[in-house]
Amino acid sequence: METGNVIPDDGLRVAINQAMGRTENPLVDVTLRDINVHPIRDLTVNTWSFVGEEYYLVESLRGLEHLTSLRTLDVYEPWPVNLPDRSNLPHLESLHLTSYNGEHLPEPTGSFPALHSIIIEDGGLVDLPAAMFSPIGKDPGSSVSTQLTIENAGHFTTLPDNPGQRPVFRAITISGTATTELPESLGGVTSVESITLKKNPRLSRIPEGLATLSNLTRVDISWSPELSSLPSSLFEVQTLDTLNVVRTGLTGLPSTLGDVSSLRLVDVSHNAIVTLPDSIGRLDKLESFVASANRIPALPSSITALPSLYYLDLSENQLTTLPSGLGAAVGLRFLLLSHNQLNDGLPEDISQIRLLEAINLGNNNLTRTPAFLNHRLGQGRENDDSLVNVHLNANPIATVPESVLTSHATIDLEGTNVSPEDPVVQRANEDGSDVAFTFS
Predict the structure, then answer these.
(1) Pairing relationship of beta strands 334-336 and 311-313 according to DSSP bridges
(2) Is 12 helix (H, G, I), strand (E, B) or coil?
(3) Buried b vs exposed e over 205-239: b needs ≥16 C-beta within 10 Å?
(4) Which end of the chain is less crowded, N or C, counting CB atoms within 10 A of the terminal residue's CB?
């Protein structure tokens, strides 16, 4: 290692010599971290090792192109003012830049055939050189972490048009950027398993090309208010397991939603959805569906035919009624319907949901206890003595009929017109009935 002529004192020079020594093997890992100690204005890298626990503030970095065996380059803030050309690094696998303040990285004159992990955090970058995504010979081994991550880079706007030429990334994260859309060629990254897009306030379009991602299992999109729709082709991906699209401008879901036989978990909460496609009834493996905080006035009847559905959250919508047939949802345990406009006359067959553990009907327009409470709830849980939790709080309910005493439930009546002195409530407390009432 050669250093500039501004090393503060001989003591530091000795420390550097102790921490970095010549080696028979060329350098394979460079990590520079700023702890605001021992500032060095210039650092020229040749074939010296950078090891040990000593870290230095470096204002420029030169000579990386000579480290032909370099595998990892990991630099923390503040990044050197001028990043040199990183060409001729055939073994570089991982590039991690934090708080790089330049707008552009130097355009390399060579390629990086082994590069499979790119992490950009914070800083002023607006794009990445296309050469970083040049074709490679083969995918890395299964034990290697592969990712393209750009986080909290508020000036970043553009991925190059050719990321599909480097099909090695298993996880792609674009979060906290100024990106407006992703390149169509992203669909060429056939190895990708997870896509995360969060807090991109200008993101308005997801490319149709994602249909070609034959290994995609997870899509997570949130806090992107300009995104109003999802491409129908996304649901041609037959490996998709988890879909989270939260706090965007989404107004609906494509009718192709039901084509993804593998889909288990869906969260589309805090959007502007007004309808759900009838095809949802074809999602035989769907276990959790969350669509709270939307504008949904009615549910498709097919939603009652989901055999694997475990958790259904439709709270904070505009529902006035529920479809009959909910009793056919044999696996349903949690049904959350608070803060809607539900009226009396809810389906009595809710009592047939054999594994039911909780139903929340708080903050609706119910004037009497639902008829399904006239039956024993949770009958399929013979080995479970716990009561089914039924929340009727903040409804204009005035009385409780005696038939409710057989419901095998804990019924929350806080904020209703029912008094703790109600005769039926008193009888439940005195007779050890199979029901319990709460008012707090």
Answers:
(1) parallel
(2) helix
(3) ebbebbbbbeebbbbbbbbbbebeebbebbbbbee
(4) C
Q: Please report which helix (H) or strand (E) contains residue 436, including its range.
A: strand 435-438
CA 414 vs CA 306, 361, 395: distances in Å: 32, 12, 9
The CA distance from 428 to 217, in Å, is 49
- The mean pLDDT of the chain is 83
Name the token pair of 280.
Answer: 């949802």
C-alpha closest to that of 18 among 42, 47, 49, 44: 49
CA distance 23 to 206: 49
Nearby residues of 255 by Cβ (< 8 Å), 6 or more positions away: 232, 277, 278, 279
Which residue intervals of 49-195 are DSSP H helices? none
> Which has the closest alpha carbon to 106: 14, 122, 89?
89
The amino acid sitting at 171 is A
Provide the 10 A C-beta neighbour count for residue 107.
11
Q: Is the peptide bond prior to 254 cis by the omega test (within 30 degrees of 0)?
A: no
CA 288: distance to chain centroid?
A: 15
Task: Specify the DSSP element, H or E, that contains 335.
Answer: strand 334-336
Name the pTM for this structure: 0.86
- Phi, psi (deg, nearest 5) at residue 416: -95, 180
Q: Are 242 and 219 in contact (CB under 8 A)?
A: yes
- Residues 54, 66, 64, 31: is their CA dihedral positive or negative? negative
Q: Number of C-alpha atoms within 13 angstroms, CB side, residue 184?
A: 2
Q: Return the number of other C-beta atoms located less than 10 Å from residue 200's C-beta.
A: 26
Q: What residues of the chain score a pLDDT lower than 70?
A: 1-68, 76-88, 137-144
